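thought: fold this chain, then report.
action: predict
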Amino acid sequence: MIGMGKKKSGPDWQDPTVQLRWREGLRHPDSFVPARGEAEVMAMLVKLPMALRAALQAELDAGNTLYSVSLNWPNPGSVFVCLSDLFTAARTQVQPPAQWRSVYLPQYWREEVLEEHGGVWHTVVC
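observation:
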């Protein structure tokens, strides 16, 4: 997992300019030039299926921020993204085949948007 909970050299997850770079990088991955430590995060984000990526993009555009991103959890090949705040845009703008669900397990997360692609489930939670 890469994110706020793990200290390592690289981007400051709380820096608004870093969040803006990831938001723009997700929108235009072909032209994204990563700063130190950002390449690994962006490589995971662009693996998200299109509908889930669109839901994540809507959420970031609405002001939510990335908290962590991990690969191969809960299944090999899956991308797991955790956002800092509850969903606003994704709750109403999710397009099939992605699905929004209320989970409300505060010790883990409250909401999730999932999409299955190639037999692997990818998830964005808050």
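thought: worth noting. The chain has a mean pLDDT of 85.
final: tokens above.
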